[in-house]
Task: structure prediction
Amino acid sequence: MRYKWSINSLAWLFHRITGIVLSFYIIAHIYVLSHLKDPESYNRLMGMMKNPIVKIGELGLFAVVLIHVFAGLRVTFLEAGISTKYQKHMAYTGAVFIALVWFIGAVYFLKEVF
Amino acid sequence: MEKYYTFKIKRFLPDETPSVRWDEFRIRLNRMERIIDGLIKIKETRDGTLTFRKSCAHGVCGSCAMKINGKNRLACQTLVKDMPEVIEIEPLPALPVIKDLAVDMTLFFEKNDRVLPYLVNDEPPPERERLQSPDDQHKILESITCIMCGSCTTSCPVFWADKEYLGPSALLKAYRFTFDTRDRATQQRLEKITGEHGVWRCHSIFNCVDVCPKEIDITKHILKLKRLAVKKGFTGDSQ
Result:
């Protein structure tokens, strides 16, 4: 079914999708970490993390986390009683913050490799 | 100023195969005319079998809610000048279609019935009427303006996925009576709306607020109901 999207329904959709992605990521994250039983395997993994492709993947993960956090904050504010009059403003401001923090973070992330 | 508009209408004719098809009608309308005027013109001059609901045509009865260009609106409140030249018209989403643009609203009204949509007060009535102060009236003023057109509930993604969900319209009705200072059935009503398919299913998507022809901030009311439910100890396992 086709239905017109707006900033509010997109905020909800992205919140949902990033939530699902993060829950899968956390399972994988814990699985990998729980298999690091000695210093060599730890160092090998850390070496792999320096790979530029992994770095770009990390940037993606960073974006997913940011979207989830800011969408969650918006919902929390609304539930806590901040006027729903500002829900669209909050979504737009959140998008600006996501872009800003992601950009600053990306500079730091990539500084390590390049 | 008159202009040609193309009405693309999603038809549903249960006796024909295929039962669903898109019909196009090119009609000349004044820019200040409404979608409902276009539909009436089509029915009167092009295709008499076109079916749609219409009663007051002035945004009061709520009969002509339909999906116009991807968004639920009242056909009598939407001017063609605000629309592109090609106007796509579909029935309200997520409800069974009877014919063309007329949907079966039974499910929608059943949900309203579930929230005790009437004043409950066992105290003996005063000599004239149960009085309400202007301040108390203001608490429910916005929710009273609901015309029950069904635009909100059928625009809600939660309702698309869960037909048992009470939906914004029924929850707004619950608010209207729960926050009425003359009403005494807060506990019973909160019990009805805090179940699995009740108020907690609202994820503040605001589709309902976007489409409400009376510009009611429905999500605001649902959030107030949520806060009241928490305050009164209803946290979701009562049904």
Notes: Chain A touches chain B through 16 residues (CB under 8 Å). Residues 7-111 of chain A form a domain with the 3 helical TM bundles of succinate and fumarate reductases fold (CATH 1.20.1300.10). The first helix of chain A runs from residue 7 to 34.
